[in-house]
Amino acid sequence: MEKSTKDKVMTVPIPKFEPPAEGDVKNTIAALTALQASEGWAIIVKILNDNIAYLEQAILDKVDPRTREVLSNEEIEILRIKRNLNIEVRDTPANYSKVVRDVEADPEEYDPYPKTIEEVKKMEKRGKEEAGDDPGK
């Protein structure tokens, strides 16, 4: 009798994003900007861009550039994932700066309903004006 084996899937919890404290936002953005301007980051970006180009060539040709072996669909999908991860790492400082800026900005008010009697009167007045301009009424 054959014993069936099941593949184990490893799951890793993704930590929840916690934005920096209010006073740290400017420092965080400045640090990320300094990181992007550093020589070390330029070297990392060059390495990542080279990796991305290598992976793109392999994906397009469906052939491993080093071994010249034809790649299966599963291997191509793995290369796509690796390419996307390289892009994410390369763009991390800019993406994180954007997230920090968005967190810092005041959220927009999306509530369409008026909160004060003055807002109600303005809406009524605007509605009457628009109705007067409507030739269909």
Describe the structure.
The chain has 137 residues and is an all-alpha fold. The protein has a domain of 64 residues. It contains five helices and no strands. It starts with 23 loop residues before the first helix and ends with a helix. The mean pLDDT is 81.
Name the descriptors:
elongated; mainly alpha
Structural class: mainly alpha
Rg over CA atoms, rounded to whole Å, is: 27 Å
Instruction: Give the strand content.
Output: under 5%
Q: Return residue spans where pLDDT drops below 50 for at least 5 consecutive residues.
A: none
Quick structural summary:
Helix content is 62%, strand content 0%. With 137 residues, it is mainly alpha-helical.
Task: Set out the fold topology.
Layout: H1 24-37, H2 39-61, H3 73-90, H4 92-104, H5 117-133
Helix pairs in contact: 1-4, 2-3
